[in-house]
Structures are given as structure tokens and as C-alpha cells.
Amino acid sequence: MGVLDGRVACITGGTRGIGLAIAKSFLEEGARVVVNGRDESKAERTLAELGAGDQVAYIPGDVKKREVCEAIVDGTVERFGRIDILVPNAGGSSGNAPVADLTDEAMQDALVWNFWHTFWTMRRAFHYMIPQQWGRVINISSVEGKVGKPGLSIYVVSKHAINGLTKSAAHEVGTLGITVNALCPGAIETDTMMEQGPPAAESMGLSYDGLLDMFAQESAIKRLNDVEDCAAVATLLASDAGAGITGSLISIDGGTAPY
Amino acid sequence: MGKLDGKVACITGGTRSIGRAMADAFLAEGGKVVVNGRDEAKGQACLDEMNAGDNAAFFAGDASKQDAVEGLIDFTIERYGQLDICCLNSGGVLNTAPVAQMSDEEWQLEVDWNLNHVFWGMRRALQHMIPRESGRVIVTSSVEGKLGKPGIPGYAATKHAVNGLVKAAAHENGTLGITINAILPGLIETDIVRATGPDSAVAMGLGSYENLIEAFSSESAIKRPNTVEEVAAVAVLLASDAAKNITGCMFPVDGGTMPY
Questions:
Q1: Fewer CB in 10 Å around end: N or C, chain B?
Q2: Which of A30, A4, A2, A12 is nearest to A140 (CA)?
Q3: Which domain holds residue B156?
Q4: Residue A245: which CATH number?
Q5: Residue at A258 is within a domain
Q6: Does residue B167 sit at the A interface (CB-CB below 8 Å)?
Q7: pLDDT at residue A216 greater than cutoff 90
Q8: B1 inside 8 A of chain A by CB
């Protein structure tokens, strides 16, 4: 008996990093899972690694497009007959720079990638969850959704926006059996971090190693978090035991965020 | 395989309500548990109900008293050889009142029960956990640790203070394999709330116990009180190896009540 037996989950950016760890945990607890990603070859490796047969499916697509976001949610329902758990996990930022030098394009890209994608998938998922009076939306925010760092404003802005959306939506659907929460992880050295970290560090006047060390030193544990930390909390929130937790911005940051 | 196999926990105020739900959940995950409470008869009834044999024990004592809190920690280590999870859960109010009418005696009781008890227990537990470089401290705080309602100034003040203690201690011990977190439940209809709620409702200007429950529920997104099982599920997560990197966290279990 798993705590997610019979549940169907949809995870954007689910082929690696935090999303993949959440997918593994959900599968272990009995759920069927749709993972999304842009790269077919990475997805093939992910499905092979998961080894879950018919319990897992892949829907390709770039979450920066509304029609793709909606198709991922619709596709989950077509594949497994319902959607119980949505994890809009994809995200990141490129073109980081101090505000004085920031381009419109970089701000717009981060907002679409992090915030609009979360909104588009959540709205679509609500269309299924509200009639069934059961649902879990687990947004992937960040410690940067609660604080702010120089040179990272596009990421900070879009994660703060996700937190606001989480709180508002939670109150809208709070009596309908649907919870909406956000995980706020500290820095984790995922594939995405390794790709986007070096240029982000440069925008902050740091080396990549310096960036990682800065995040670690701000925490109580003096090290980075890991993807399994997020998966454990996501599984609790997705379970029946999480029914009374909503509108929460849960810090998984080794003690970094001040609130 | 349970998530807490081989782990030993102690829980203040563990014979009923939130603490009892934690004890039940810890036992179900393979832990050993010492529950504490003031009443020997309730303690024995709790052990009988849990039916966990040698995996559970009771320690009698008043959590607002230093010797009782420290005695619980010492007893747990003596009984099971170690202490891995220290749940400082007991707390409440007895005769709360607005600040202008608050008695020194009630104020002192609330400070001892809600704040000093956590400090005494945490300090004693850390003295055991630091040399072992392993441990979990889980403090039952409240939404009132971030908010403040009229008529319960001592409760709000002490729960705010507890949150500060958790954050400071988490940073002191963050590299030692020890996590220190607080769970912030919304209103739960525990035995203590049922017993003291009617008087608290009057102190808060709400008139009746039913109005008190409604006042808290209506602030939440779920429009209902929380449950002890919801808190216990979070406690199991925080106690487990999976939460080794979660510390200094104010974990909400409040149905969306708190603004941050």
C-alpha cells in the first residue's frame, strides 16, 4: 500500500533533477506519473531509469508555450483518465543581470518559464480537479521566492510571483478538496543549476563555485540541499495526510530563509 | 521497514491529541516512544491503547516544570539507551485574558509551559545529541507564532518566542547532523482546546466556544480546523532521514491561514 495508490500525477520538467526525484517518489508510493521535458533522448533515458512500465508516460514539449502547458495537462488525463497531482516544476532563468542592465527579453523569458507556465498548468488542472473535488498542486518555488539576491532579479521576481499565486489560489479552492502549496528549496546542484549557474554567477560577480558556496554558507547546514529533500515533502503534500496543508510556502533550504 | 526503525523519541504532552497522534505515527514507523503527561492514570490508559509492549513507555510529569522536562529526557535515554527525536509538544493556556487583565500567575505559567519547557527540553536533548552528531528536535508551535489574536497575548508571545528559539538553535547545530524545526498548526480541537476553549472564547471577546472554532476556521482556506493526524504526518517526515536537510523551518499545518 502506497500513500498515492490510484493517484495520477503530472510533472513538468520531470525528466531530471527535482522533477525526476519527485516522479520516482510518487511511483514508489503507487501513483501513475506523466513526466514532461523538451528532449526526447533524455526522456528515453529517464523512462528506462524509472523502469515503471505502463505506470509512467512522457509528454514532450516546451512549457514556455501556453498550448504546450495545456496539452501536458490534457494529455495526462487522456493517458490515465484523470489528474490528481500537478507539479509545475520546470523553470529557470537565463540572461541574468543587475536591473540597470537587464533586458526586457530576459525578464519576459523568466516570467514565462517560471510564472506563466505555473499559471497555465494550474488553471488547466483546476478544470479537472474542481469537478472531482480532489487535487494537489505543488508548485516549485525557491528560497529566492522569499528573499532577493543581486543580479538574480528575474528569477527572484518570478518565484515571488509563484508564491503569491499559490496563496491566492489556495484560498479560491480551499473548500473543494484541493490544496495548493509551494516548495521553496535552497540551492541544489541539479543539471539545470550546472547549466545556468555559471552565467548567473557571473552576473553576480562570482565564480560558479563561489555561487554554490555563498548559498551553502547562508544556510544552517552549510551545504546545498538535494533533490530527495524536495521529493519527500512533495509526497507528503500529495498524500491524503496533506489535506490540511494549503497555501504554504515550505522552506526546504537547510535553514536559510528568515520566515 | 519503517521510516523510524531503531529511532527513539520522547514527546511532552504525548498521552493525547497532537502528541498522542505523533506517538502512534512514530510507533507505526518502527520507532520507540516515551510519552509524557501529568496524569498517571491517563498515561497507563495511553499505553494500554497503544499496545506497543516494550516499544512504548510513560513518564509522569508537568511540562511546565524544569525537573519534569529534564527528567523525561534523562528517563528516555536511560530506558532506551539513546534519544533521537525530541518532540516538545505540550503547551496551552489556563486562564488567558487581554493584556490589561492578565495576571502575573497566568503569564508565568504560559511562559514556563510554552517557552521555558521547550528551552529546557531542547537544551537537555542537545547535550545528548551533539556528541552523537545526530538528532531531531520538533517543536509544536502554532499559527499564533506568526499572528496575534486579542485575548491570548501570552500564547502569541510565547509561540513567537519559540519560533525564534528554533531558528537560532537550528543555526547553532546545523552542521552537526541535528535538525530543529517547528510545526505551526492551525486550530485543532484537542482535549486542551475543548477544556479551555470556552473561557478563552470569552477572553477573546468571541462569546462562545463555537464562535472560537468558527473564527479560526473562517481565516483558513479550508474553512475547518486541522487534525492531529495532519500534524503527525509532518512530524514523521521531519523525524525521518529524508528530512536531514530541513532545519529552522516553520512548517505550516494550518489550512492556509498564515500570510507567510
A1: N
A2: A12
A3: 8-189+227-251
A4: 3.40.50.720
A5: no
A6: yes
A7: yes
A8: no
